[in-house]
Amino acid sequence: MISRRAFTIAAATLPVLNAAKVWAIEEGAPVAELDDLTYPSFDIINPVNQFGRAEPDEQQKEKAKRIWTAAPKGPRPIDVVNYFIDNFNQADPEAISQWPNAEAWNPLVVEFFRSTNYKAENDLVPWCAAFANWCLKRTNRIASGSAASQSFLDPQAYAFTNNPKIGDLAVFTCYNIDTGKSIGLGHVAFVAGIPTATQILVAGGNQSNDGRSMICRRTYPLGPVRTSRTVNGKRTPVDFKINTYISIT
């Protein structure tokens, strides 16, 4: 997930989906490089239709509402995640995907942002933290309330752990390769399998699967993995790796 001010991409490039190189692999497969999406700045993404994306029709809105209304309210946040994956990942993947190349934005993704302090009016924004917040709030857990993945790194709000269990949160961070400092970008998802020495299975939103940005399970390397991110309009080399796990009780 990307901090609100980290991306400042020129408006002329906004409709373009670039390869941003998030690293994720299928469970048990060799580490492979997958495409991610380069997103416009949070500050210039609105209003609706600004970049040729249309508002969904009433049928699409009603379908999305039925999906999120039927989501369970517990017992754990990861049970909410599993509801989306188990019911729609194979049967109707478009329902739980971002629609970057379609005429309309997915109202389900916009709904997830209602659990944060950022008002999304379309789904051309990174949404892993929004989805995590939605699942936490759905089950009456403490949410960060922010659309940034790194907002979960708050020791006053969360208990960090070195022994994650299924259902905990995994927070990944991108680090400057020269200074070793966080650049404020990364990813957040729920632990779906006990980590090995090199990788971990996570379940979350805004994860790449068959070219889609969607709710799914992916295996991420613990890192560090050398990749790059767009910061202040420039491609910046970074080390992507696990930062910490957060205990969700």
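[next item in queue]
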Amino acid sequence: MASIRRSGRGEGAAPALIGGLAVAAVAFLALPPVALALRAPWHAAAAQLSDPAVLDALRLSLVVSTAALALSLAFGAPLAWVLARASLRGLAVVRALVIVPMVLPPVVAGVALLTAFGRRGVAGAALERLGLTLPFSTTGAALAAAFVSAPFLVVALEAGLRSAGRDLEDAAATLGASRARILWTVTLPSVAPSLAAGAALCWARALGEFGATVTFAGNLRGRTQTAPLAVYEELQTGDPDGAVLVSLVLLAISVAVVAALRGRLFAR
């Protein structure tokens, strides 16, 4: 009876408190994007978004984020495979290095890129002798975006490779399948959802990159000024309407990415 009495009186407040805090959390997270939509100057949307500077920034954002994704796939996918399947000493250190850009302040990431690939950087001088100058270039913007976004692809793909296991691959090998055939017919289909989720998150993170890009590549219109940098410039020059509308475009893209990943991110 005592236990029944406790459950009837004492535990009722906890769900109510938790529910109230959950509602407050949803309101806190939902209010900023809703406020963007409410305060957007819809009457001027066509004129603002057709401005050549805005179109250049949006185009460059797509180019930079897509190039960053390509770099991440080219180098991140093999790295994820090594982290998931190899038995080498020091992999824990490598994994930590992969995760660091995810938690590094973006401006610090830009400074680190300058010290590595700047004209007087550790590798920058050698690259410049080869005729490749990365700072304040579109290539540099793509490199900065890849640096901060590639870990999302690596972490997601490594998790997918670990959960997929090697049983099917071993079975295919015993049946005489070549390594290339196993890769294309067994491994890739089994990790396809993780690869797609990691690629989408990587691309979206690259699309929204600001700090590392402005520090390493600058804010040059038509060359390195991506959409987030254009939003910042419009706020600095006293054009909040333009900043809100470009922000809404980026918000819509972000919502589309989340909607595409809903089965992956919110699976029960």
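[queue empty]
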